[in-house]
C-alpha cells in the first residue's frame, strides 16, 4: 500500500485580501502606526488559514497585543543602543576620522549580529503561534548560536566569492530546522550541502561573465578600455544590464534549493515534497510588481489630480504653484486631506503588492507542497506553550518586516 | 431551529482529525465525540476565529477550552450558530495586559530619559572635547543635509550663492567684526543659501549660514552685521555643536519609535532642530552679550538688531514663526531694549558696509552676468 500523501490547497482569494489590507492599512494610519501590530496579526491569520495541507487550514494564533509588548521591550533596549552608542560612535568618528562614514559603518556592523538574532527570534515567535490540526509548532531557543553561525557562514561566503553559498544555505537551514518541532515531533534537515551546488551553477556562470567583462576592460587591454568616460559608461551600463540576469539566476538557485531542502526534511516517518517551479516564481515577481506599479501609479495620478482640483476650487484664483512652497497656504483641512492622500497611496501600494505578489507566491509554494507518509501524524501530541514575551519585537524595531 | 451533521474537530491534544456529529440547539452545539460521548458547547461561550480565507466555513473555539477547534461547513448550521451565539466576535481573554502597560511606561520613560537627559548631557560634554577638525567636518556634513532637505522638487539641493562681489562684501563685514573681535575656536566662514526663508543660523565648526530671504528683508547692512555678531556668539560658545550631537543621538531613537513610515521625516526633524536652534535662554543671552560687545568694538550700532526685529514684525506680524530663532524667546522685548540701550552712549558709529557693498551683498545670489 502506498504511503498516504496529503496535497495542499490554497484557499485565499484576492478580493477579500485586498479589502482586509486596505481596511487595516487605514486603521494603521489613523492610529499613527499603533494598529500595525494588529494589521500584521490579521493578515497572517488570513494567509495561514489559506494554506490547507490535507484540506485542514493552518492557523495563526498570535495576538496584536503581544507584538506591541515585544516591540516596547525592544524599544527599551534598543533606545539605549541607538541613542547612546550611536552618539559615541558619531563623536569618535568625527574626532578621529573627520567624517561620519566611520560612524555609519561601525553602527551598521554593530547591528548585524542583532539582525540575525532578531530573525531567529521572530521565526521562533511566529512558529510558536502557528497551529495545524490543533497542534502547535515550536522552535527551541538558540538565537545567539544562530547569529554567530550566520556571521561565520556569511564571512566564508564572501571570502570564497560566493563559492560557499550552498554551504551557508544548508548549514543555516539545518540549524533552524533541527530546532523546529511540530507538537512533540522534532523535524530534521538531512541531505548534504553539496546537493545544492548544481543550483548555483547558472549564477556562477553569469557572475563569471560579469567579472570577465570587467577584467577584460581594466587589465587585459593595454591602455585600459575603460579609461575614457564613454567606455566607463559602457562598463556601468554592462553592470546594470547584468543585474536582472544575476537576479534571475539567483531566483533559480533559491527555488531549486528550496525543493532540494524540502525533499530532505523529515519529521519522524513523515517526509515532504515540493514541486515549486522557478519560471513560475520569476513570472509572479515580474508580472506582480509590474501590475502593482502600474495600478498604483494610475490611482495615484487620479488621486493627485482630484486633490489639486480641490485645491484650485478652494483657493481659487489666488492659488499658484508658488504656494506649494508654503504649506500653510491651503488651510488646515486641505493640508490634512493632502496627508491623507499621501498615506493612501502607500496603503494602495501595499494592498496591490499583497494581491499581485505575495498571495500568488504563497499559492504557488502551497499548491506544490506534499506531505508524504501522513499516517505518521496520528501519534503526534501537543507541546507546551512557548510564552516568548518579547515576541518579534526586535525584528519589528529593526524593521525586518519581510513579506508580512 | 435545528441543524445537524458532521464536522472536523481538533481537540488540541493530538494531531489526528476527528469527525464528530453535532446538533445545533437553542442552548448551544451538542458534539458527539467518538469514545467520549456527548458534550455541550454553550452558545454564550462560542468564539469565532476571524479573518479566515474560506468565508463559507465557520471556525469555532470555546472560551474555556481555547485549544479546541470545530470547523462548520454546513450553511444551515452556520446560520443557526450565528443567530444563536451573541458573543461570537468577543475577543478571547487577553493575557498580559498589565505587562504591556508596564513595558509601555518603561519604554516611554527610557526614551524620555535618553532623549531628554542622557543625550543632552553627553552631547554637552562631548561638544567641549570634540577636536576642531572634527567639528568642522560635522558642520560640513550638516550643511549638506540642510541643502538637500530644503530643496524643492525641481532641484536636488539648495545652491550656495557665489556672486564674487557679494562674497567680497560679506568678507568685508566679517573682517570688520573680527578685527576687534574675540579669539574663537574656529575661523568663521559665512555661507549664503539661495532660499526665501528669513533666517540665519550657526553650524558646528564656525559656519554661519544666512538665507537669501534674510539679506533681502534687512533694510540696513548693520542689521545683518548684528545678526552675524549674534551667530558668532553662538560659534564662540560651541552651541551648534551641542545641538548637532544631540540630534544625532535622539534622531535614531525617534526613528526607532515611529518607524520609517513617512520616510525622511527624521532628516526633516534634524534640519528643523538646527535651523530653529532652540538654544537655552542663557545661551541666547550669552550670544547677545558677545554680539553686542563685538558690534560696539567694531563701532557698529547694536540698535540695528532691534530695527531688524521690527522690520520682520512689520512684514510678518508678531508671532509668525519667521526667524523663529530670534523671535521665539519670550524676552524679545527685553533683548531689543538691551540692544538699544547698548547703543545709546556710543559716540562714533560707522555703517558696516558702503552703499555699494550693501547692494552687492543683497544681490549675492545673482549670477555675475545677470
From TrEMBL, chain B:
<keyword id="KW-0862">Zinc</keyword>
<keyword id="KW-0472">Membrane</keyword>
<feature type="domain" description="DUF7092">
    <location>
        <begin position="7"/>
        <end position="81"/>
    </location>
</feature>
<dbReference type="Pfam" id="PF23368">
    <property type="entry name" value="DUF7092"/>
</dbReference>
<dbReference type="GO" id="GO:0004222">
    <property type="term" value="F:metalloendopeptidase activity"/>
</dbReference>
<keyword id="KW-0812">Transmembrane</keyword>
<dbReference type="GO" id="GO:0051603">
    <property type="term" value="P:proteolysis involved in protein catabolic process"/>
</dbReference>
<dbReference type="GO" id="GO:0046872">
    <property type="term" value="F:metal ion binding"/>
</dbReference>
<keyword id="KW-0645">Protease</keyword>
<keyword id="KW-0378">Hydrolase</keyword>
<keyword id="KW-1133">Transmembrane helix</keyword>
<dbReference type="Pfam" id="PF01435">
    <property type="entry name" value="Peptidase_M48"/>
</dbReference>
<dbReference type="InterPro" id="IPR055518">
    <property type="entry name" value="DUF7092"/>
</dbReference>
<dbReference type="InterPro" id="IPR001915">
    <property type="entry name" value="Peptidase_M48"/>
</dbReference>
<dbReference type="InterPro" id="IPR051156">
    <property type="entry name" value="Mito/Outer_Membr_Metalloprot"/>
</dbReference>
<dbReference type="GO" id="GO:0016020">
    <property type="term" value="C:membrane"/>
</dbReference>
<protein>
    <submittedName>
        <fullName>M48 family metalloprotease</fullName>
    </submittedName>
</protein>
<comment type="similarity">
    <text>Belongs to the peptidase M48 family.</text>
</comment>
<feature type="transmembrane region" description="Helical">
    <location>
        <begin position="99"/>
        <end position="123"/>
    </location>
</feature>
<keyword id="KW-0482">Metalloprotease</keyword>
<keyword id="KW-0479">Metal-binding</keyword>
<feature type="domain" description="Peptidase M48">
    <location>
        <begin position="172"/>
        <end position="341"/>
    </location>
</feature>
Amino acid at each position: 500500500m502506498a504511503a498516504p500523501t496529503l496535497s495542499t490547497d490554497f484557499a485565499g482569494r484576492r478580493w477579500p485580501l485586498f479589502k482586509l489590507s486596505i481596511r487595516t492599512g487605514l486603521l494603521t494610519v489613523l492610529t499613527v502606526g499603533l494598529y500595525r501590530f494588529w494589521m500584521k496579526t490579521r493578515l497572517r491569520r488570513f494567509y495561514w488559514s489559506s494554506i490547507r495541507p490535507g484540506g485542514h487550514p493552518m492557523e495563526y494564533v498570535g495576538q496584536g497585543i503581544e507584538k506591541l509588548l515585544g516591540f516596547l521591550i525592544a524599544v527599551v533596549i534598543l533606545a539605549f543602543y541607538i541613542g547612546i552608542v550611536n552618539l559615541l560612535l558619531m563623536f569618535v568618528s568625527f574626532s578621529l576620522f573627520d567624517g561620519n562614514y566611520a560612524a555609519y559603518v561601525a553602527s551598521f556592523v554593530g547591528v548585524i549580529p542583532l539582525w540575525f538574532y532578531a530573525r531567529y527570534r521572530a521565526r521562533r515567535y511566529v512558529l510558536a503561534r502557528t497551529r495545524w490540526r490543533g497542534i502547535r509548532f515550536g522552535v527551541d531557543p538558540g538565537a545567539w548560536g544562530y547569529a554567530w553561525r550566520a556571521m561565520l557562514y556569511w564571512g566564508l561566503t564572501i571570502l570564497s566569492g560566493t563559492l560557499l553559498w550552498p554551504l551557508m544555505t544548508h548549514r543555516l537551514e539545518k540549524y533552524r530546522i533541527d530546532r523546529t518541532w511540530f507538537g512533540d515531533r522534532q523535524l530534521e534537515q538531512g541531505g548534504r550541502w553539496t546537493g545544492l551546488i548544481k543550483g548555483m551553477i547558472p549564477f556562477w556562470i553569469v557572475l563569471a561573465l560579469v567579472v570577465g567583462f570587467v577584467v577584460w576592460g581594466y587589465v587585459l587591454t593595454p591602455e585600459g578600455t575603460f579609461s575614457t568616460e564613454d567606455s566607463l559608461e559602457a562598463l556601468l551600463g554592462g553592470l546594470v544590464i547584468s543585474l536582472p540576469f544575476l537576479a534571475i539566476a539567483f531566483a533559480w538557485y533559491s527555488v531549486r534549493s528550496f525543493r532540494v531542502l524540502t525533499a530532505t526534511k523529515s519529521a519522524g516517518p513523515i517526509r515532504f515534497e515540493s514541486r515549486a517551479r522557478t519560471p513560475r516564481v520569476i513570472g509572479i515577481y515580474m508580472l506582480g510588481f509590474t501590475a502593482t506599479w502600474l495600478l498604483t501609479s494610475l490611482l495615484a495620478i487620479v488621486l493627485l489630480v482630484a486633490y489639486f482640483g480641490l485645491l484650485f476650487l478652494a483657493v481659487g484664483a489666488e492659488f499658484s504653484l508658488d504656494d506649494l512652497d508654503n504649506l500653510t497656504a491651503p488651510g488646515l483641512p486641505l493640508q490634512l486631506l493632502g496627508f491623507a492622500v499621501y498615506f493612501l497611496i502607500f496603503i494602495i501600494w501595499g494592498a496591490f503588492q499583497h494581491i499581485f505578489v505575495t498571495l500568488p507566491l504563497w499559492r504557488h509554494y502551497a499548491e506544490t507542497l506534499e506531505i508524504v507518509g501522513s499516517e505518521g501524524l496520528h501519534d503526534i501530541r501537543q507541546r507546551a506553550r512557548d510564552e516568548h514575551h518579547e515576541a518579534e519585537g526586535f525584528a519589528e524595531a529593526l524593521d525586518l518586516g519581510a513579506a508580512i | 431551529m435545528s441543524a445537524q451533521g458532521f464536522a472536523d474537530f481538533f481537540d488540541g491534544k493530538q494531531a489526528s482529525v476527528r469527525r464528530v456529529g453535532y446538533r445545533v440547539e437553542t442552548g448551544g452545539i451538542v458534539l458527539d465525540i467518538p469514545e467520549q460521548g456527548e458534550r455541550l458547547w454553550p452558545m454564550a461561550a462560542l468564539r469565532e476565529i476571524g479573518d479566515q480565507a474560506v468565508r463559507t466555513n465557520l471556525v469555532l473555539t470555546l472560551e474555556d477550552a481555547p485549544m479546541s477547534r470545530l470547523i462548520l461547513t454546513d450553511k444551515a448550521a452556520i446560520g443557526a450558530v450565528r443567530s444563536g451565539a451573541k458573543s461570537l466576535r468577543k475577543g478571547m481573554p487577553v493575557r498580559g495586559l498589565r505587562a504591556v502597560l508596564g513595558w509601555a511606561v518603561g519604554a516611554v520613560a527610557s526614551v524620555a530619559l535618553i532623549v531628554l537627559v542622557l543625550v543632552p548631557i553627553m552631547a554637552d560634554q562631548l561638544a567641549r572635547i570634540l577636536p576642531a577638525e572634527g567639528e568642522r567636518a560635522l558642520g560640513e556634513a550638516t550643511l549638506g543635509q540642510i541643502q538637500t532637505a530644503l530643496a524643492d522638487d525641481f532641484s536636488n539641493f539648495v545652491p550656495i550663492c557665489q556672486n564674487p562681489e557679494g562674497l567680497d562684501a560679506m568678507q568685508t563685514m566679517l573682517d570688520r567684526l573680527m578685527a576687534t573681535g574675540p579669539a574663537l575656536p574656529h575661523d568663521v566662514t559665512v555661507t549664503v543659501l539661495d532660499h526665501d526663508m528669513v533666517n540665519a543660523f550657526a553650524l558646528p565648526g564656525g559656519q554661519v549660514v544666512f538665507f537669501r530671504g534674510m539679506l533681502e528683508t534687512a533694510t540696513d547692512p548693520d542689521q545683518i552685521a548684528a545678526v552675524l555678531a549674534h551667530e558668532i556668539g553662538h560659534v564662540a560658545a560651541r552651541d551648534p555643536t551641542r545641538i548637532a550631537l544631540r540630534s544625532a543621538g535622539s534622531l535614531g531613537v525617534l526613528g526607532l519609535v515611529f518607524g520609517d513610515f513617512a520616510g525622511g521625516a527624521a532628516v526633516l526633524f534634524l534640519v528643523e532642530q538646527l535651523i530653529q536652534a532652540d538654544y537655552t535662554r542663557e545661551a541666547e543671552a550669552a550670544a547677545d552679550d558677545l554680539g553686542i560687545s563685538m558690534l560696539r568694538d567694531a563701532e557698529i550700532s547694536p540698535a540695528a538688531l532691534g530695527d531688524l526685529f521690527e522690520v520682520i514684525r512689520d512684514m510678518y506680524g508678531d508671532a509668525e514663526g519667521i526667524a523663529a530663532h530670534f523671535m521665539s524667546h519670550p524676552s524679545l522685548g527685553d533683548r531689543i531694549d538691551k540692544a538699544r540701550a547698548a547703543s545709546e552712549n556710543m559716540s562714533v558709529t560707522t555703517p558696516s558696509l558702503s552703499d555699494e557693498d550693501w547692494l552687492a551683498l543683497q544681490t549675492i545670489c545673482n549670477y555675475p552676468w545677470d
